[in-house]
Amino acid sequence: MEYGMTPELEKFRAEVSEFVAANKPAVPVKAGVRSAEDAGELALLKEWTAKLFAAGYIGADWPEEYGGKGAAHSPEKDVVVGEELARGRAPAAVQGAAHLVAHALIDFGTEEQRQKYLPGIRSGELVFCQLFSEPSSGSDLASLRTKAVPVEGGGFRVSGQKVWTTNGHWADYGYLLARTDPDAPKHKGIGAFIVDMRLPGVDVRPLREMTGTSDFNEVFLDNVELGPDALIGGVTQGWLIANSSLAHERSAVATSAVRLQQNIEALKELASRVTRNGRPAIEDGAVQERIGELAAGVAALSALVYANISRWSRGTERAYDAPMAKLMFSELGVDIARFALDLAGEAGILVEGDENAIDHGRWQDEFLYARGFTIAGGSSEIMRNLIAERGLGMPR
Ligand SMILES: Cc1cc2nc3c(=O)[nH]c(=O)nc-3n(C[C@H](O)[C@H](O)[C@H](O)COP(=O)(O)OP(=O)(O)OC[C@H]3O[C@@H](n4cnc5c(N)ncnc54)[C@H](O)[C@@H]3O)c2cc1C
Q: What is the pLDDT of residues 204-241, one digit of tens each?
């Protein structure tokens, strides 16, 4: 039995694993969190999302009246689901941002808003994107400048620019943070909204990334008229709402830890295929040492993930637990992919689609995407700041 697992959780794991094998969609697995490549993939991912909700494998922490599992849910089960999706090489649900907005609506929205959006999220129909980051507000998100100006009748007029919007080009709705009170201190003058992405004035421009795919977008908002029902919670409660919904995303790192374990296995396998000094690289002491070092890092990360989840469910979580796990998984991701490319030599620089590319370009994709993980959801530098200040009590 794995560290932190009980017989009941192992039984649940077997059930999820069987479900994943029987139902996972035929969508190619790429590194990281990626958008559907075309409408066909999007349709498959929506169907998959509906199945995951119906089985109670996602959304289990919602209140029962909205489809949650009540006492049958536990954060440990969320970890198991994340791990089994990764182990079965299955994609996650189509709309990561929908989970954030669902929690925002459950905790702060009106009953009308919950009835309007939650069923469509569960059925996989509604795709949401997260309209938080801006060209000069990422790490310091509270400095965001997109404005939501109150208008007569209780609505808002929104103008500004968002960027790095994952799934923006597929989204029906956006979960937006915008400045509602320019005179208030920066964290206190922000509102949270739901924006219909088809409204006049919303312009979505896909960005092509170095991975060769378009996973995120720039989104321009030009005098977009929102009704009063677009606002979630109070006019200046946006910062609290955003942080509270982000805090629900604790188990995502478990998926990443399993992906890294898989990469360690693939790295060993690669090292036994390629040569160093005329012999299989796996026989080289320096190669063994490096793989051992990376594998130890991944094992430590997995243990940390379980310890964090257990502390979280007991209410004893420390402020630097999540930053430590985020820092470890994203940096290990870069190190593993870089070493794989070193081992692969010339063939390692070829990408997917080139017949000579090693492992069909898998390591190039891993390497190019891995940097993104050191930025998304809080960069490595920010994580180190949090660990230093909150964990080690060092001065700012
Ligand atoms: C793959 C991916 C997907 C994303 N998806 C979304 C999305 O769907 N929606 C969304 O809203 N955003 C999304 N983002 C944006 C992401 O949240 C931001 O990129 C992130 O918050 C960093 O902000 P930034 O890019 O503006 O960098 P900046 O904040 O400008 O940072 C630039 C550099 O300065 C460093 N730095 C900044 N402040 C400090 C400090 N105080 N101390 C030390 N170093 C510092 C950073 O570590 C970084 O190296 C995504 C990003 C990526 C990579």
A: 999 988 888 888 999 999 999 999 999 999 999 999 99
Domain that holds residue 75: 7-94
Is residue 180 included in any domain, yes or no? yes
Residues 261 and 334 placed together within one structural domain of the fold = yes
> What's the gap in Å between 384 CA and the centre of ligand 1?
14
| Block residue for tokens 């637990």 | 321
**Residue 123 placed within a domain:** no
Within a domain: 74: yes
What is the residue whose two structure tokens read 């968002």?
162
How many angstroms is it from 232 CA to the middle of ligand 1? 24
- What single-letter amino acid sits at 2? E
Q: Is residue 229 assigned to a domain? A: yes
Q: Which of 101, 144, 164 to mutate to test the pocket of ligand 1 (most atoms within 8 A of CB)?
A: 164
- pTM recorded for the entire structure: 0.93
Residue 18 among the catalytic residues: no
Render pLDDT for 278-310 as a digit per residue (tens, 0 to 9). 999 999 999 999 999 999 999 999 999 889 888
Strand 202-206 and strand 190-196: the pairing is: unpaired
